[in-house]
Design brief:
- This protein is α+β, with helices and mostly antiparallel strands and 861 residues long.
- 16% of the residues lie in helices and 37% in strands.
- The chain is built from 8 helices and 56 strands.
- α6 runs antiparallel to α7 and α7 packs antiparallel against α8.
- The longest helix is centred in the C-terminal third of the chain and has 43 residues.
- It is rod-shaped and about 205 Å long.
- One of its GO terms (biological process) is anatomical structure morphogenesis.
Length: 861
Amino acid sequence: DFLSGLGLGCSFPLLLCVFVMTVARGQVRYSIPGEMTKGSLVGNIVQDLGLDVKRLKSGRARIFTEDSREYIGLNVDKGTLVVKERIDREELCAQVSPCSLHFQIILENPMELHRIDVEILDINDHAPVFNRKEINFQISELAVPGARFSLDSAHDPDVGLNTIQRYTLMPTDYFSLKEQSRNDGTKYVEMVLQSPLDREREEELKLILTAFDGGSPQKSGTIKIDVTVIDVNDNTPVFSQSVYRVSLPENVAIGTGVLTVRATDKDKGANGEVTYSFSQSSGKDLDLFRIDQNTGEISVNGLLDYERSKHYELNLEAIDKGGLTDNSKVLIELTDVNDNAPVISIISFSSPIPEDSTPDTVIAMLNIKDIDSGKNGQFKCLVNSDLPFGIKSSSSNFYTLVTDQNLDREKMCEYNITITAIDEGSPSFSTNKTLSLKISDVNDNAPVFQRQSSTAYVMENNSPGVSVLSVKAHDKDSGNNARISYFLEDILVNGVSASTFISVNAESGEILAVRSFDYEQAKEFNIRVKAQDGGNPPLSSNVRVKIMIQDQNDNALQVLYPVQSGASVVAEIVPRSADVGYLVTKVVAVDVDSGQDAWLSYKLQKATDRALFEVGLQNGEIRTVLTDKDAVKQRLTVVVEDNGQSSRSATVNVNVAVADSFPEVLSEFTDFTHDKDYNDTLTFYLVLALAVVSFLFIVTIIAILSVKCYRWRRERMFYKSGANLPVIPYYPPLYADVGATGTLQHVYNYEVCGTTDSRKSDLKFLRPSSQSVLNFDLSGTRTVPKQNRNTEDVSAEVRFLYVTATVLLTSIYTESFFLFLSKVAFLHYVCLPCLTLQSTAVFVMFSECVKLVFLKFTQVC
């Protein structure tokens, strides 16, 4: 009930009990009896440590013992400690008490360490045993009472109450027992003579020595003692010291003398000869030493080990020829020598670890032990100072290897960590343990281009798919984190997506042209290429690439002036009084190419008289060189060439007339020869346009005359029947209200003189007419009076004026239309192949034609 109140578990299989002694800060102590059967319960570790079975499984709980043999096992499924194999306390600990097993329970994720102590309680499973079955003594009859005789000590491997507690000697007529204790608490007995011996009465004595332990039930062991009484020798040997003390280093060599003991016997002769020996009560220490029975010299006979036993006690016995003995003891103290190097055991080791592990990340757990004592057993644990790792002590003899700096796989992907344990002995011993730690990659490096910006040059008119440039990025990571893909960023180039111009190979980073480039449309453009790795999340970087289009001489020359036409002749007039160097005209040409391909040079290819004119090589100016008063007309052919590698050229025909007046030019104008290779298609369209306009003109005239005749007949019919009709207000359709704000209150007569050339037409104003067309009354109501002769004359004049104006306007329209049509055809087929310049020229000429029509119409009005 008391144990249950304390919360300690107790079971009694085979009268054995398990006690949970303490549970504090991850340390549990149990007590179990020895010789428990395999599988017996030691304790519930889950309950005592405050854990659960899931934690044991997830943490991969296991037992770590400093010794290779495991007596206690861990049942992870139940969370209990059980006996793994039979435990013999005497074999495990011998006479050491208390006898305990020490081991650790290790949990991972996170790392936990729990110390478990299991004390093995002794049971009385051994009876006292003597090494010999019989002891023989030869005792002189002269032995005085009080003489002591050393008896064999019984051995009982048990400890505590279960070991030897007392001895008895039967019978006790002559001898009694005297118990003695050694420094370690063990007991031995001596047989003491109580009364003098009488050989004549009893020549031989039979005794029984019995040893009892304190167990329950009590066990015992016996040995026979035969005492033979001899005569004469009445002096016993005597040792010079009752206790001899000596100190030895543990590494003393075999055969080294320890000391020499001496015992004296006052008898003479054979009775005074003394022999030396170790008493059997010295136990197992007899194997490590030997004594010369004649000289008493004690020497080392085996390997001494301070870590096994720190001191030895030898019982000496000196015997004379008469059987008299004396006893003494030798106490040998061993001093520790640094003869053991530290031992490093790896409990747990994690490899690889990610490169982004934070400082103080646990890499390995170590157990380091040095079985020497004092300073010889103290040690220091170190790692390479040039590595980003450190050693920390977690508990006694347990250490953790941790990171103390940030790791970078790109600088070092693997570390060979040498752990060194050095003790403080002289000379010191050290132990090295090397761990190979691999660093796993983390995507912490973005791709890096060799340059932040690049420039590529590509010739215009390239083939689609041609390689423009190859960009390359490097990623310091490894594996998928270093696998780079290249992408073209979707930006606008001249208002269009960059993918319509350029594509990028995702694997190689090669930049390819999607289509053919035209230098005249785009001289350069910028794109951005993105390099992205395969990490998670992916990292990327950009590079700016400038694409420069290089010009080719792929555009023909365009002559802007003078305008060339196969259907008309353009002539430049040079006065006869012109001096040498007179600027006749200037040939103006353009080349939409750039650079050297757009440098133009002008040359005079042929002329009617080459000595009269020269052409400026760079500016195309045609100037007079000599003046020939007789020369009236000249025809010059000027060649314009660019400066490209495959040069292009154009020819210009310039007609020059030497005259002082325009009529003189006209007289010679028709004599110029014209080119006969007219475009048949242009002629066809011009004739078709002429026919269509003529047809529309005739239809328009007929329609106008029909409408006017119809209206004139209706007016006559209306006036003839005016006497019988009511007065109806009538407003002529061609005149506005002529009230207070009206216009055209009088009839005007015009004299019109027209020519085939509308530019030479004249319009003359004659006189106003004083006759009114209509009469108005004060009320504003307008009525038509009866037709009289004067009214008919005025109406005829008005109709004549209307028809004349219509014909004149139609003529102006037709002439302007044909002038505009001829100029457009000339520009389209001869002068301006460039679409932009052609559209501009057509617009300008159309504006001039509209302006001409407007001026002519104003003259008519």
